Amino acid sequence: MFFKMKKTLRDVDIRGKRILVRVDFNVPIKNGEIKDDTRIRAAVPTIEYALQQDAKVILASHLGRPLKEQKKAAEAGREFNQSAFSLRTVAARLGELIGRNVEFVSDCVGDSAQSACSNLAGGTVLLLENLRFHEGEEKNDAAFARELGALCEVFVNDAFGAAHRAHASTEGITHFVSQSVAGLLMAKELEFLGRTLDNPLRPFVAILGGAKVSDKIPVIESLIKRKVDKLLIGGAMAYTFLKANGYTVGKSLVEDELMPKALETEEAARLAGTEIILPSDHQVVDSYDPLNSRKTIPVDFTNTGLVGLDIGTETVERFSAVIKGAKTILWNGPMGMFEEEPFDQGTIGIALAVAEATRNGAISIVGGGDSVAALNKAGVGKEITHVSTGGGATLEFLAGTPLPGVEALEEIQT
Ligand code: AMP
Q1: Ligand 1 in reach of 387 Cβ (< 6 A)
Q2: pLDDT, tens digit, for every residue of 248-305?
Q3: What is the greatest pairwise CA distance in the chain?
Q4: 35 is catalytic
Q5: CB neighbours of 354 closer than 8 A, spacing ≥ 6?
Q6: 10: how many CB neighbours lie within 10 A of its CB?
Q7: 114 exposed, middle or buried (CB, 10 Å; 0-12, 13-18, 19+)?
Q8: In the chain, N or C terminus with fewer CB closer than 10 Å?
Q9: So what's the pLDDT on residue 234?
Q10: Where are any strands of DSSP class E within 11-71?
C-alpha cells in the first residue's frame, strides 16, 4: 500500500462553520472574459456540499503570476495591468454556476478580508482576491499563512493541481487551523491516482508519451514498483529507448544522456515482470523536405535524415490491442507531435482505444494537458473514468513523490 487516504469535508463537522476552501480557479481570462471555466465547474460539488451543511464558505485561489509579471513589466518599462489578475470575474461566473450570489473581497488577508469573513452568514459564499498578490503565498511565509488560517475554523484543500507546491495556502495554513481536510475534487484525484493504482484490477496497462524522458523516468520506476503488467511507450521519449537498444532513429528527438538510464529501467522492468512495449513503426518526415515527405516507416530508420513525429499505424494497432485487454489503464503524454496534423493520428488512435476499453468495463485514468486535449479532439473526453485535473502534480504523485498539499491533510484512521 503506497497511499493513505485523507479525510474529506464529509468526515468532519462543518455545519455552520467558517471553512476556507483552497480551490484552483487559475482559469484563462482574456480581455476580462473567461475562456474556459472547467476549473470553476470542477469546484462546484465541494461548494454545494458545504452550502448544504450551512457552512460559511470562503474560497481562495491563485490566478497566474502577478508579481512576476509586474516585475517583468517594470523591467521592460511597460505598464502593468493588475486587474488582469483579479478573481472578480470568476466570482460572477461561479455565481451563475451555483445559482446564487458570490461575495467578493478585494484582498485575501488584512482588515477587509477579516471583516468580510467574520460577517459571513451560514450558507453564503465569499471569494477572496488572488493569493499571489502577496509574496508570502509562494514563499510559504508563516505570518501570511497564519493570517489565512485566522479567517476560518476548518481548512479544505480542493486544489489538487497546486498540491505539489508547498505554498502558504496549500501547506503553511494547515499549521494554523485545527482541522485540514480534502475537498471532493481532491478526494476524487486521490481515490483514482492513489487508491485505484495501488490496487489495480489486472491486467494493468500504462501508456506514457510526450517528449521528455527525464520527467517520466520516476513515473516509470514507480509503475514498475506497482508491478504494472504492460507499459506502452510512445512519443519522442520512445526514441531514447529505441536508440539505447541499438536502433537508428534518424534525426528524431533523443535525450542521449538518458540512454543508460533507459536500459537500467528496462532491466528493472524485466525483473519485476513488467513488459515494456515500444513502437515498431513511425510517421516520419524528411528533415530536408518536411512538407512532401510524410510516410510510415518501420522501426529502423535507414535514411538518417528522417524525423519521427508520431507512432505509425501498425503501432496504433498493436498498442490498441493491449489497451483493449486491460482492466486498469493509466495514460499520460501524447504519442507524437499531436498539435500538428496529421501527427495527431497516433494519439487520437490511442484515445479511441482507451475509450473503447472503458466502455467494455476497464477503469481508465488519464492525466496531462496534452492527453486530455487529445481525448477531447477524439470526442471521447466524457467516456474516461477519471480525467485528472493536475499537470505537474499528477506526474509527481504518480512518481510516488509526496505532495506537500496532500501530506498536510488529516489521514483516515483505519
Ligand atoms: P511532455 O511535455 O514531455 O509531455 O511532451 C509533450 C510534447 O511532446 C508535445 O508538445 C508534443 O508535440 C511533443 N512530442 C511528442 N512526440 C514527439 C515527437 N515524436 N517529436 C517531437 N515532439 C514530440
Answers
A1: no
A2: 999 999 999 999 999 999 999 999 999 999 999 999 998 777 667 788 888 887 778 8
A3: 73
A4: no
A5: 207, 323, 329, 331, 364, 366, 375, 380, 384
A6: 14
A7: middle
A8: C
A9: 98
A10: 18-22, 29-30, 33-34, 56-60
312 touches ligand 1 (CB under 6 Å): no
Question: Quick one: which H or E segment has residue 45?
Answer: helix 38-52
- In the sheet that 386-387 helps form, which strands lie side by side, from edge to edge? 275-277, 230-233, 204-208, 328-332, 363-367, 386-387
Q: Which of these, 46, 26, 22, lies nearest to 97 by C-alpha position? A: 46
* Contact in structure between 368 and 234 (CB atoms under 8 Å): no
Distance 251 CA to ligand 1 centre (A): 14
β-partners of residue 58 are 20, 126
Ligand 1 atom closest to Cα of residue 339: 12
Average pLDDT score over the chain: 94
6: burial class by Cβ within 10 Å (0-12, 13-18, 19+)?
Answer: buried
Cross-strand bridge partners of residue 19: 57, 154
CB 280 within 8 A of CB 318: yes
CA–CA gap between residue 127 and residue 90 (Å, rounded): 9
Of residues 302 and 244, which shows the higher confidence score? 244
| Closest CA relative to residue 105, chosen from 124, 91, 94 | 91
* 337 Rama class: left (phi>0) / alpha (psi -120 to 50) / beta: beta
Angstrom distances, CA of residue 153 to CA of 45, 130, 214, 215, 287: 20, 21, 42, 38, 61
pLDDT for the residue 2:
61
Cβ–ligand 1 contact at 253 (below 6 Å)? yes
Which residue type does 123 have?
Answer: G
Block residue for cell numbers 515500444: 278
Segment 77-97 mean pLDDT: 95
